[in-house]
């Protein structure tokens, strides 16, 4: 395989860092976390954990850290006893909410149709 | 954990089948395959393999089969010697091209900004 480095970012290019960006924003939990943080507001870890059903505390922590590292969310620490920690989308994080909402609506809106396709496909094989 | 089955599909619900739909449309290669198949046209396996850099023939075959099972692509077999096989988006597949193009543009358009965030985050830790 030849290595082609294009001047413009291109997800089809194996060496383009936009692939990692795409992987992060489409990882298993990021779209759901973005969904809970939309519309923009501060949300506590506990609420995120409850709303994103099935996520473990460890994986939620790791995903939030990765999103914070990428600049999508910010941790807001309030000095209280115990200290209160909230998560909030940054401006960069806000800019991904519309594409993610479109994906989510598509997934939620086409469940029945896709299940019918799967059924027909599987029936045709047997 | 209590099992809640909501009437409306909801990706935040651990038992909702829309989660599987979301996983499929955001899997590692599906957005890239959709990108190559857009605008709608028939594309041969060989071209898909060349344009989606880094994908193995085995994984491309598996991903196309999963997309065909979900009703996103159709295999078009032309009777020739050897038979020619092309892949094309269905109407359902076409309906996902816009959300996926938005994601792709976002990923390609924010590479530099995200890399700067990562650098700043890592520097702050050390």
TrEMBL record, chains A, B:
InterPro entries: HTH_HxlR (IPR002577), WH-like_DNA-bd_sf (IPR036388), WH_DNA-bd_sf (IPR036390)
A GO term, aspect molecular function: DNA binding
Keyword Cytoplasm applies: no
Pfam families for this protein: HxlR (PF01638)
Domain of life: Bacteria
Keywords from the UniProt entry: DNA-binding, Transcription, Transcription regulation
Keyword presence, Cytoplasm: no
Domain HTH hxlR-type: start-end pairs: 16-115
Name of this protein: Transcriptional regulator
Species of origin: Galliscardovia ingluviei
Organism lineage: Bacteria, Bacillati, Actinomycetota, Actinomycetes, Bifidobacteriales
């Amino acid at each position: 395989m030849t290595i082609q480095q294009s001047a413009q970012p291109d997800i089809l290019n194996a060496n383009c860092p936009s692939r990692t960006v795409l992987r992060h924003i489409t990882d298993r939990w990021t779209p759901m976390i973005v969904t809970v943080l939309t519309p923009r507001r501060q949300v506590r870890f506990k609420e995120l954990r409850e709303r994103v059903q099935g996520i473990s505390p460890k994986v939620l922590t790791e995903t939030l850290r990765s999103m914070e590292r990428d600049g999508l969310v910010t941790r807001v620490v309030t000095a209280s006893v115990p200290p209160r920690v909230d998560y909030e989308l940054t401006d960069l994080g806000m800019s991904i909410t519309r594409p993610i909402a479109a994906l989510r609506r598509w997934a939620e809106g086409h469940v029945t149709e896709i299940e019918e396709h799967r059924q027909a496909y599987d029936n045709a094989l047997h």
